[in-house]
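Reading a protein record of the kind used here takes little practice once its layout is understood. An example of such a record is reproduced below.
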Amino acid sequence: MAKIALGSTREATQPDCIQALVVEFITTFLFVFAGVGSAMAADKLGADALVGLFAVAVAHALVVATMISAGHISGGHLNPAVTLGLLVGGHITLFRAILYWIDQLLASALASYLLYFLSGGLTTPVHTLASGVGYAQGVIWEIILTFSLLFSVYATMVDPKKGDLSGLGPTLVGFVVGANILAGGAFSAASMNPARSFGPALVTGNWTHHWVHWVGPLTGGGLAAFIYETFFVNSSYLPLHSDEQN
């Protein structure tokens, strides 16, 4: 298991860190703008619930895949849970992770406020638990969905042994995000991303169940990173060759 690197305040003045923060802000802004915008459009058009969910899932899948690729300078995290997962694995320092978290929340807030203005004051959909879904159920939903997301990030983008998957990572991660929204959107809202939930909650002032969309994703992301780093990246157990399996 990699040790968490603390980093230092000097990072904030380094050109590569400044450049990464600018890129992370832009890509997170565009991700939230398209994601929240798709949900607002579905509401405005009066889409059937299933059709609306499918449209939102597809929009998120497409924009996640594109923004991860476009954000290669910063890593295209777009998500505090992803940043935490990479911090747990030692791929980013704690100080830079904090800067990323601030960056992501500010970008989400700006995107959500701008959507509110551009839509003429339409209601911004907020991530809340569905009727009949309790806090514990919601947290577990978000843990599992975000675990799936981070496990995919590690397997397709971070793992040095990913082989032929190189270059396909952003697209595959986008597919996972879309699939998870289809699976959990009707229950926990399938946030998987505290920043994605933060902007709409700030604009509307509706913080109902908001903590669920922090605790679940951060727990799931950190757990996935710990397990993948421990058992797959740094494991002493090597896979058997085909001739050894026979």
Remarks:
- Residues 45 and 52 are 9 Å apart (CA to CA).
- Residues 13-235 form a domain with the Glycerol uptake facilitator protein fold (CATH 1.20.1080.10).
- The chain has one domain: 13-235.
- The longest helix spans residues 15-44.
